């Protein structure tokens, strides 16, 4: 598609957000059993967590995150649970922070971590067979990252171990990319986004990528919804507002300031429509607009 503006020909590049992932499979795991306190279960295809014969069963999992990405916007632990003839079981997932060292092939109940070595991440109620996900975006992720899974009730579940390749425990990092990543630097006259900019999890990165992709004097045009006041953070995850492109909306001045800091200059802003939305019985003013920015160098 070719767009002609003031007798100049610009190549129009539709853009969208792309989420890339980087996955780290567990490098070690084992379950420990109070019923057999000196036995090692480091090579089993399943990790038993629960209670049986008046003794607890717990699981240890280790990940090597030494090469984790620096620019992720979300990280989560994922592991596969199977119920053992029960309705549900609540488990606690902790991270080991006490410098405890354990070996998959030798760890036993007798050599398990001290209770004070674990910090709780969350509680999960397992009620169906399948993958369960835990958000750890805000956690400090050591290069050797260990989790400890303990039951809170007198029932048992099975967690797929790293030996079960399709369902092995993993930590997944979510990284934002865009279509611009495949376009050569300084090759385009115009980049145009239509009702997608607000949904980008990392707007600054997109603006930086746009700057690199554009020729000197090239244009970045953002056609989207702009807020006139701060919107509640709950709107960002509301499906109705995401579909309308309102989730993530910021003021025109806020967006223009980010672009200015990345080397753009605001050339124009056209208001197409002004309206209000209502959320929790409070009204918020917005405007549909087109923000035109030019690369300076």
Automatic annotation (TrEMBL):
Main location, first listed in the record: secreted
Pfam families: CBM96
Domain Carbohydrate-binding module family: 21-168
Record keywords, A-Z: Secreted, Signal
Gene3D superfamilies: Vaccinia Virus protein VP39 (3.40.50.150)
Family matches, as InterPro entries: CBM96, SAM-dependent_MTases_sf
GO cellular component: extracellular region
UniProt-annotated location(s): Secreted
Name this polypeptide is given: Carbohydrate-binding module family 96 domain-containing protein
């Amino acid at each position: 598609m070719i767009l002609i503006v003031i007798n100049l020909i610009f190549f129009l590049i539709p853009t969208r957000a792309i989420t890339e992932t980087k996955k780290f499979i567990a490098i070690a795991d084992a379950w420990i059993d109070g019923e057999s306190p000196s036995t090692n279960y480091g090579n089993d295809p399943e990790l038993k967590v629960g209670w049986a014969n008046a003794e607890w069963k717990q699981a240890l999992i280790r990940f090597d995150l030494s090469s984790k990405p620096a620019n992720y916007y979300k990280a989560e632990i994922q592991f596969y649970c199977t119920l053992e003839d029960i309705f549900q079981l609540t488990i606690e997932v902790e991270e080991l922070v006490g410098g405890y060292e354990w070996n998959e092939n030798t760890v036993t109940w007798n050599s398990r971590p001290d209770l004070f070595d674990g910090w709780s991440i969350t509680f999960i109620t397992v009620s169906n067979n399948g993958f369960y996900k835990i958000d750890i975006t805000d956690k400090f992720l050591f290069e050797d990252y260990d989790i400890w899974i303990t039951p809170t009730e007198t029932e048992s579940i099975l967690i797929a171990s790293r030996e079960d390749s399709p369902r092995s425990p993993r930590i997944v990092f979510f990284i934002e990319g865009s279509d611009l990543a495949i376009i050569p630097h300084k090759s385009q006259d115009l980049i145009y986004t239509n009702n997608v900019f607000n949904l980008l999890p990392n707007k600054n990165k997109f603006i930086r990528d746009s700057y690199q992709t554009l020729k000197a004097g090239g244009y970045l045009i953002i056609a989207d919804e702009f807020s006139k006041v701060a919107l509640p953070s709950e709107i960002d995850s509301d499906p109705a507002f995401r579909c309308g492109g309102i989730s993530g909306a910021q003021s025109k001045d806020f967006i223009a300031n980010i672009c200015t800091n990345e080397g753009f200059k605001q050339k124009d802003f056209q208001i197409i429509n002004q309206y209000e939305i209502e959320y929790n019985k409070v009204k918020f003013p917005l405007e549909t607009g087109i923000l035109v920015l030019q690369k300076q160098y």
